[in-house]
Hints:
B: 14 strands
Amino acid sequence: MDNARPEATHVxxxxxxxxxxxxxxxxxTYGPCEIDDRFADKVLMPGFVEAxxxxxxxxxxxxxxxxxxxxxxxxxxxxPGLRSLDAVVRRLCEEHLRQTDxxxxxxxxxxxxxxxxxxxRMHRSDLDQVSNQRPVAVHHASGHVLNVNTAALEAxxxxxxxxxxxxxxxxxxxxxxxxLQGPEVITPMLLQLGISRNQVATEDRSLxxxxxxxxxxxxxxxxxxxxxxxxxxxxxxxxxxxxxxFPIRLAWVMHIRGQTVQQxxxxxxxxxxxxxxxLRFGSIKVHVDGSIQGFTARVNWPGYLNGxxxxxxxxxxxxxxxxxxALEAGLQVNTHANGDQAIDLALDCIQAALTGTPxxxxxxxxxxxxxxNTSQLQRMRALGVGVNFFVNHCYYWGDEHYKFxxxxxxxxxxxxxxxxxxxxxxxxxxxDAPVTPLIPLFTAWCAVNRLTASGRTLGPAEKISVPDALRxxxxxxxxxxxxxxxxxxxxxxxxxxxxxxxxxPLAMDPTRxxxxxxxxxxxxxRIFQAAPRIEPSGASRA
Amino acid sequence: xxxxxxxxxxxxxxxxAGKTTILNHLLRNAEGRRIAVLVNDFGDIxxxxxxxxxxxxxxxxxxxxxxxxxxxxxLAACLGELNARTPRPTHVLIETSGVALPGTVGATVALCAGxxxxxxxxxxxxxxVMRLAQDKYVGGTVLSQIAEADLxxxxxxxxxxxxxxxxxxxxxxGQVSSAHVIRSGLGxxxxxxxxxxxxxxxxxxxxxxSVGLDLPSGLFRDIGEGRxxxxxxxxxGPVGRKNAADTFSSLSFPMVDVVDVDAIALLxxxxxxxxxxxxxxxxxxxxxPKLVQIVGNRAEVSPTKAVDRAALGIVCIGIAAQFAxxxxxxxxxxxxxxxxxxxxxxxxxxxx
Lengths: 542, 352
């Protein structure tokens, strides 16, 4: 990734940093050395940077995976995708039998009905087959729908006399079908089932699982973007993350939720003082709107295909106040803005804030930013704003956007990586794990190929080259985290963070970029091997 | 023993509409009510420090048994915790964020056991609303906030001159199809619109566990003669700054005999009568006691415990300038009479 020296045969490492890169003879300039040739037949790249993820990727696997696609857990066991409702029910039955504590409910995740038989929607009677006493639920991959069984409904008193709310879907006899739509009805149900939002996220077990998933994917720096962890959690996290065998650097971004602007700035500054090499604080996250597939992103005229426009999550005045205060305090702000109207507002507010507090190199980044258009990209360039596209959406929800949310032409220009590059907007790409799997090579594959799950190419003009995609998951990610001085490329002075690959991504056919095999990582000069793969037993692929 | 559902008021409206001022006013004048205020985050609430008794990360304890809690993004959880508090609050006020849709928040309340959505109240600043409604970003949201309200309070009327005030009122008339609009200014605020009317002075409270502690009857100011007869909102003559706020009238109407309760409820939501709130226990045609609660256009009739004969009846509150008291009395008497004579029961054509 170093333009001056794009490829080399050897890298010298001292005290966790890159001493030099080049040929063995060149590196002997530095003096005596030990030669470690265990990677002689591998390919080293700068360690991948997952620039937008959540620790929930580590804790999600404590519950049964119910998705359509095969997915690999942090122990490198591949769970086969479930291709029918019956298969989902069987997976949940296995969990029900395994879960001997009667107080615990059974909650599956990752369910995506899009490719299942459309004539048969999941119904509470399906989940009643798992248990009619214990509450059973299945979380959809979109995050916006939860299916439950009758016992779960009864636990909340929602079965016999369901509250009148559009999110509680009723059948022709006015009884709930078990399908709950939207956070207003899902949150109370999850509470009843024993899940609260921040519950397990910062537990050591989750952090370790998350870190393992990173090693498996060649990731040496990842993010929690964003969390509302109390300060009391910070001590414990520091202890774990700084331990010798913790394999990743974590950028921990604080959400403004529940705090005033002043409180946010003060806490971010205080936390920043406590940053260590592997646990970085000081960055702030704010949500301007919701998600496109949830119809809560703010969309300009003509709105969604169904005519709706989305929801604001913050007032313009508050957003501008946050930006101004952050600029004055020297803090970076990451702004979640999916819809094009949300992007307009964010840019207006950033422009106003910068006019009052001119700040070169502020590193403000728009996260997801999926509906960015050309004029917005030009504004971003003028304002020095970077972008971190959720390009995995092209694969997982590309067809849905094409057909149901915003229509063919706007879907085809979602996550416009090529336009960002040609307008010189700093580019990063991400998975938002656990929303989609934490695998930067797959994310790069999405940016290069733009294939939807059904095989359509979503906007061929926005495809980028393999080298550009690899740059986006290394230096691009590092830049968006304001860490490009330390990571993102293999050059003298930077951290010895490498992704160790079995295959050369530059030599593969671009359509096979996602099949590049990862051996493990080097992080700060320490070596971490990914666990051996556990292939599916082949049994339950229904 | 089961408690009656906690009444919950959702207080919405954009920044600058005066939500904080109103909350402080209500807390300062709680008059024995144990009010629980729920806010997104503590910092912006600006609670009068004179009211604060103690606080921790999640709850601020206020004078008179009131509390303020921050619900962050977990409103349902916060409401659940409130329900379990001892002593239990007697009224909940949820202050939404400036861009929230209060109707949606209200729908969440409906999901919580032990809670009853009393009203969605949207505050609108008279000096800002027309401009905000045109804002390219938040215009649609502000209009939705108004459309979703049971009651709209037009605040800061003292900051607009008479011409502008008339203009805002006329504009509001075009927006609001069914909500009632209450004018407020000079920091005055219509508590009458938020809390249940008291029991009729001299009679026991309508519901033992209700908020209805005996409020001094001086809270209600009857205007007297010259009241208009049943127009919902309307220009009420030039609005001088000292007359910026609406005042309220009340009517107590005893009804000790069985009555067509549904007809009463239907009558009370007719906007031409100018009723903002109404509450009472009546005996339906089978003799079962029914609790009737009206806020704006929202009517609820539910079975309830028996009360003393002397406590049967309805208390109605309305904006003085629009309260069609005489018409209301005559219609109530009409329904009451015909309830005893099935052959003369009020038909649709008799209803106003």
